Amino acid sequence: MTALTFTLKNATDFKINCSHLTPNLLKGLTLSQIQGLTLANGHNAPKVADFFEVNGNDTENIIFSNSTSQLDYIGYKMKNGSITIQGDTGDFLGCQMQNGTIICQGSAGDRVGDQMRRGVILIDGNAGNYCASRIIAGTVGIYGQVGKFLGFAMKRGTLLVTQQPSLHATIQDCGSHTLPFLALLFQSFKSYPTKFNTVNNLRVRRFAGDLACNGSGEVLVISP
Fold first, then answer.
1. Do 180 and 201 meet the contact criterion of CB atoms below 8 Å apart?
2. Where are the alpha helices (DSSP H) in the chain?
3. What single DSSP character describes residue 2?
4. Which of 75, 101, 160, 189 could form a disulfide with 141 if both were Cys (CB 3.0 to 4.6 A apart)?
5. DSSP H or E segment with residue 128
6. Is the peptide bond before 210 cis (omega within 30 degrees of 0)?
7. Distance CA 44, CA 76 (A)
């Protein structure tokens, strides 16, 4: 089987809602059925085939090729499988994600992992504002720069960054630590097509938060 691949035909000046293109929603559908899916509500809503060339048959492993920042809601409420984004992506990547793995080989917009419950999101480029906002659990990694309000209202979860972010007042500095559990976490990244598969430094700067929401989450600044 080959990964189900959505190749964006042309760059657009408007946003495309990709919330229906997840492994759990596409399971059991034929290629023609996937091509005929609508990307929005309404009688004349655009179809997948209007914007994407679709190839492959493995709905558990999805690839977005030629992706741009106009593609919003990739991995929305995703429950299983993997999504690899070969390029940039828009807002709400992995929003309300329940499980699975998302790899973005470019940069992402605002609200990455908003209200995420479980799973892994790894971004090789930058991420926008409110990354991992209201996250309930899971792991989010940003290899590049990250915008304002990282981990805003996060309840639990682990956020990995390689550059010191600007953190709001209710994310508190806990100092530098060597965390052995990271050896297992980084080992699990080895098979992923991401820059994070080379990280192995267990010495991190740890921040706890959001203290306004019980403070059980953490931001770890790692040296790649």
1. no
2. 23-26, 31-35, 48-51, 181-188
3. -
4. 160
5. none
6. yes
7. 23
Neighbours of 109 (CB within 10 A): 23
Burial of 82 (0-12, 13-18, 19+ CB in 10 A): buried
143/218 Cα distance (integer angstroms): 16
> Which SS3 state, helix, strand or coil, does residue 188 take?
helix
Question: C-alpha dihedral over 37, 38, 42, 43, to 10 degrees?
Answer: -60
The residue behind tokens 């090789």 is: 124
SS3 124: coil
Residue-level pLDDT at 129:
98
Phi/psi for 177 (5° steps) reads -145, 155
* Rg of the chain on CA atoms, in Å: 17
φ/ψ of 81, rounded to 5, equals: 75, -165
Buried b (16+ CB within 10 A) or exposed e, 169-201: ebbeeeeeeeeeebeebbeebeeeebbbbebee
